[in-house]
Amino acid sequence: MIVYTLKRLALALVVAVIVSLVSFMLIRVSGDPAIALAGEASSAEQIQHIREQYGFDRPLLVQYLDWSWRALQGDFGESPYFRLPVSQIMGDRIGVTMTLGGCSLAFAVLLSLPLGILAAVHPNTWVDRLALAIAVLGQAMPSFWFGLIMIIFFSVTLRWLPVSGTGSWRHFVMPTIALGYYATPAFMRLIRSGMIEVLSSDYIRTARAKGLRWPKILFKHALRNAIIPVVSLAAVQFGFMLGGSIIIESVFALHGIGYLAWESIGRSDLPVVQAIVLMLSLIYVVLTLLSDILNAVLDPRIRVK
Amino acid sequence: MGLILEVEGLHVDLPLPAGRLQAVRNVGFEVSQGETLSLVGESGCGKSLTALALMDLLPPRAIRRAGKLVFEGRELSGAAEDAMAQLRGDRMAMIFQEPMTSLNPCYTIGNQLVEAYLQHRRASEREARERAVFLLETVGITAAGSRLKQFPHQLSGGLRQRIMIAMGLMCGPSLIIADEPTTALDVTIQAQILALLADLQREFRMGLILITHDLGVVARVAHRLCVMYCGQVVETGTTKEVFARPLHPYTQGLLRCIPVPGRVEPGSELGSIPGLVPTPIGVLKGCTFRNRCPKGRPECAVENPHLREIGPNRALRCLDALAAAA
Amino acid sequence: MEVVFPSPQQIMRRAMLHHKGFLMGLSVIIVVTLLTILAPVLATHDPYAQDLGQRLIPPVWQEKGTWDHPLGTDNLGRDYLSRLIYGSRVSLLIGLSVMLIAGLIGTTLGLLAGYFGGKMDMFVSFLVTVRLALPAVLVAVAVVSLIGGSTRIVILVLGLLVWDRFAVVVRASTQQIRPLEYVAAAKSAGCSTFRILAQEMLPNLMNNLIVVATLEVARAILLEAALSFLGMGVQPPTPSWGLMISEGKEFMLFYPYLITIPGVALFLLLLGFNLLGDGIRDVTAPEGR
């Protein structure tokens, strides 16, 4: 278990380094960052000034090492737009995005778990078709459009929920549904197919041959095995949700990381963009690392070696 | 000897896209206390489905019909799932072919053994553990106490099968159904497991239904046997009689396929049965073995042979053999 | 006793013709394809022609709607139906091109990883992990905004970003096929590695590949719409459905049709590709649902 964890950790570290390199290079290869920062209309002198101020005239490797070394210490530089440290700006916003991501994940799992299990236990019945319909519609529904439609219906027509902002839990209801529903199909399909596979396995037959009743067979023997891949999916989906928050947050004007990224891209606030790409990537790396370790705890075949 | 199980007119159908597959047709047999009955046949002859049908563990799409299914004096052919669940694991237990996949990989051996006991007995966790240790020792597992904490993937196939047997014995059943219990194991382990089953069956005076395609296994442990072909019983009798005087051409063919010291000359060729088992879909007319039968008669294509008693505990389903006997 | 079993092709064809989702998806895609081909004939107006005197005319089923603009006009007085029809071109063009680029990258990587295994496999798995760690929408938005948005840039950026599923699926299926006898047979017959990959492996991956490709077209269309919605994809005045929703957003409280119409169109097209992909999977590999 310890060896496994260490190996997995080493891999995560390598991925993290590459990811940081990519998020660094992203800005450099897409154009001259000095021009982007200074603005198209600025003079050659101004651009040169920016270039020196931000150290863009140094060799790329030096720039990267400098940037990543500072990033490691939590220093992502200063935002030219806010005139504030990037880490401070992000610290103010991350809570909203994490809340949104957590709620959306909970929404997706709480919706797909019972439906997926019911669909697996009663294949080709109305429950199964309902689960399938929810999955198919969720795959095809553009989340930003779904969000707008909800605003028209729940905020404007029915006046139940606030249109935008972060003041109370009610502000999070629609963003959670819009973002969570997008992830639901993947969970539903995985739980359904996993349960169907497990339910037809030999050890479920053994459990029945012992005289166990359905609830115990389902929740003790089947679900434990079917849930293992779901843990990995949850980590991956949470990462995707944080990345996808850029769309939902801009629809609902939720002032989280995604909204910040969108605004910063619009105003060429490169240090912020870079830091957000890096941070979301690192969160994903950490999440998948945790899910692999959690998987090892759940599945003795990985754990006991 | 008291009768434990009486089966008559057992059918299992599997609806397939191509039609209704009549996997088990009109099968009947009896098992008494302390008796080993073997169901023998090629793979796909319906012997495993017969076993699953007895415990009502068939796959969901399979349809079971039974004229009579009496276990310990209770009619089970229309029994509710709850009544069946009460019997399973308590009065009747089953051992499966694949010890590698028949144990839940997520739980320890101890957990899975104890669970079988606590499902049917009011007992403490500790009592159940003691019972589990006792039975693991009975099935010949050393260091039984520490095995309880292990997971299935840490054990070999032979050990796992012993654990499956111990699990079946947890509540002291009167009938054990063993479905090809040795097929997936190494040859050396096979003999040990068979001997173990036979010993336990004697010791606890259980009825044992042993399902196998291996006549060598039958010869060693079974008191009586039912030879099955294409979903039907074609010949029954005591092991001694059938081996000494096989009457059905299929049984004769099967016996020619195994080397028996003394009967088969060294260096001579072993027999084989030409042709393939037909798929029993649609209306079945005539004897299903006729295409592969060396003694086929014209009437075999028209007439469905019945299972005829030709002596005490001896029955046969063949027009030719019956005509010869008459 | 004689039973005639239908051939696999017959079974597959029969299954397809009885698969409601597959038929629905196929019909949607046929309709949209016809729209894109016949756009110049079907569109009643120039999709770019502004007419400020004709602003925000509601669709024909609402009060004040006219048959001259069956789906109304937008805030610049452009005919919404014509823009919708031309918008299908953008969606299909981007969806298919991105799928082709991503498919080429992903399939190559997946084949190499699955066939050679070992270090190559580790390397490709590593690439996939890195790719998945990067937030796709955010990276695409950032790059497009820095380079400048155009249909070509969007295609290229998305194509370079969404090859992961191709790689994963092709790798897994290649690993399944590789140990099979016919591959060994080709090897022992002296076929070159390239020939084995291209002629022996690839055709046997086709079923899986078609399923992924169909679903990936949907993903690419969705991503394009999202980028355009954020203003970092296809640039105005190009009629992209995502852009139409974005432009209609400002007016949606009083003129909801501005977002419902392109949204429904987008939803239907995505539904079509998803149903088609799921249908093909159900028919070719029913266990993979």
Structure description:
The complex is a heterotrimer of chains A (305), B (326) and C (289). Chain A has helices at residues 2-29, 33-38, 44-53, 60-72, 86-121, 126-140, 143-157, 170-199, 202-209, 214-252, 257-266, 270-298, 300-303, and strands spanning 78-79, 84-85. By secondary structure, chain A is mainly alpha-helical. Chain A has a domain at 87-265: MetI-like (MetI-like fold, Orthogonal Bundle), CATH 1.10.3720. Chain A has a two-stranded antiparallel sheet. The model of chain A has no long low-confidence stretch (mean pLDDT 86). The mean pLDDT of chain B is 86. Chain B has 326 residues and is of the alpha/beta class. Chain B has a single domain (3-91, 171-260, 273-325), classed as Rossmann fold, CATH 3.40.50.300. In chain B, strand 9 (224-229) and strand 10 form a beta hairpin. Chain B is globular. With 289 residues, chain C is mainly alpha-helical. Chain C has helices spanning 8-18, 20-37, 39-42, 80-116, 118-133, 136-147, 151-161, 164-177, 181-188, 193-229, 241-249, 257-284. In chain C, helix 2 (20-37) packs across helix 12 (257-284), helix 4 runs parallel beside helix 8 (164-177) and helix 4 packs antiparallel against helix 10 (193-229). The two termini of chain C are 35 Å apart. At the A-C interface, helix 1, helix 6, helix 7, helix 8 and helix 10 of A face helix 5, helix 6, helix 10, helix 11 and helix 12 of C.
Helix residue percentage of chain B: 25-40%
**Helix segment tally of chain C:** 12
Number of strands of chain C: 0
Give the strand line-up of the largest sheet of chain B. Answer: 6-7-8-3-9-10-12-11
Largest sheet of chain B: 8 strands, mixed
In CATH, the topology of chain C is named MetI-like fold
Low-confidence stretches of chain C: none
Q: What percentage of the residues of chain C does DSSP assign to strands (E)?
A: under 5%
Structural class of chain C: mainly alpha
Give the termini distance of chain B in whole angstroms.
Answer: 32 Å
CATH architecture of chain B: 3-Layer(aba) Sandwich
CATH superfamily of chain B: P-loop containing nucleotide triphosphate hydrolases
Q: Can you write the helix and strand succession of chain B as a string? A: EEEHEEHEHHHHEHEHEEHHEEH
- Distance between the ends of chain C: 35 Å
CATH superfamily of chain C: MetI-like
Rg of Cα set of chain B? 21 Å
Unreliable stretches of chain B: none
- The outline of chain B comes out as globular
> What is the number of independent domains of chain C?
1
